[in-house]
# Entry
Amino acid sequence: MIVIDAGSPVPPYEQLRTQLARQIQDRTLAVGFRLPTIRRLAGDLGLAVNTVGRAYRELEEAGLIETRGRAGSFVSSVGEEARERARQAAADYAALVASVGIGTGEALGIVEAALRSLDATAPAPL
# Structure
């Protein structure tokens, strides 16, 4: 279920994008699930077609959905493949830190610092 808060300082397209991304990532929306058309979802949520279109475009750019022309937009398997790559990288990292004697707390701190560094260099959202 998607809920758009008109009083929120977060733009409606971002609220929609975030909620759909979360549902895809937590597998509430399974790989292959057909999303509503842009027009239908816009009508259901009381949003402009361009607002929903922007959310869908950003989800597609992130690899979470794919559009198949007139067939519509579907939850992509690319997100699942990326998640598996991340799991494998985490397992490799865990093996590395264990082999050099780094403890769990320090290893997590290294990862958090690396993620913060990425966040600091990421371009600001439009």
Observations:
- The two ends are 25 Å apart (CA to CA).
- The mean pLDDT is 90.
- The chain is about 60% helix and 5% strand.
- The CA atoms of residues 93 and 121 lie 23 Å apart.
